[in-house]
Design a protein that fits this description.
8 helices; six-stranded mixed sheet; alpha/beta; globular; 34% helix
Length: 250
């Protein structure tokens, strides 16, 4: 089975629809959305509607920190993401907010464990940005002995970690479009990047495809109409910073 892994869509319907089309063209048979459906972007209603349709078709969905903030916005805006939480909350109806609120923090499917941030205390939204953080997440996943793969987002970067012969973790930066063998006798953790808001200087969307039969993981970068997404942010009256970031990937 080919499982398309997507995270950090951030209300960017242009990027989301382009990645869905790309994944289907590459044989995706199931989808997993790893949180942050909303936040920053101009189209939370369209993205949540698409996500609900996917869930009705058997997709796996988990909650991200921006989904939680859209349900219960912070009283004060102390970070960039806080600025759009209240606006996003107002765009969504009760049914859509309830849908986000009911999403689980983790989900397991056989040897795969899905999480938005880190498996250790997922509600604290820890960033898995280096080997130490990845090791802590994998250690927490050991509560499920059958788990060999942990897939998450949150850091908006595509990185693969694995345990070698020793106790430490090895870090690997994948090449987009090149399948990476991920045999089951090792333990693996991947951050799959952001569909809707890359921050590495490249505006192309990010997602990954896991072939469970061949034990291969392929990371993708996909071009989409980021100018249209940026224009939608400006039309919505959201801070121009969020539009500019889509164009330069910062």
């Amino acid at each position: 089975m080919k499982l398309a892994l997507m995270s950090d869509i951030h209300a960017n319907i242009q990027a989301f629809e382009t990645c869905l089309t790309h994944a289907r063209a590459h044989g995706a048979q199931q989808f997993a959305l790893l949180g942050d459906l909303v936040g920053y972007g101009a189209d939370p209603v369209a993205v949540v509607r698409q996500a609900r349709d996917l869930a009705d078709g058997g997709a796996l969905l988990i909650k991200g920190n921006h989904d939680a903030m859209a349900v219960a916005p912070p009283a004060a805006a102390n970070a960039n993401g806080d600025l759009t939480a209240t606006w996003t909350h107002a765009q969504l109806d009760d049914s859509q907010r309830n849908f986000l609120d009911r999403l689980p923090l983790t989900m397991r499917q056989q040897a795969v464990l899905l999480v938005h941030a880190s498996v250790n205390d997922p509600a604290l939204w820890r960033y898995v940005y280096d080997e130490r953080a990845a090791a802590a997440s994998l250690d927490a996943a050991a509560a499920w002995p059958e788990v060999r793969y942990v897939f998450g987002g949150h850091v908006h970067a595509q990185t693969l970690y694995y345990r070698g012969a020793g106790a430490g973790l090895m870090k690997f930066t994948p090449t987009p479009g090149v399948a990476v063998p991920v045999p089951r006798h090792r333990h693996w953790l991947a951050t799959i990047g952001s569909v809707g808001q890359p921050r590495d200087g490249n505006p192309q969307s990010m997602y990954a495809m896991f072939d469970t039969d061949k034990s291969r993981l392929t990371f993708y970068r996909v071009s989409y109409d980021h100018n249209a997404a940026a224009a939608a942010i400006r039309r919505a009256g959201l801070p121009g910073f969020f539009a500019d970031r889509l164009k330069v990937g910062q």
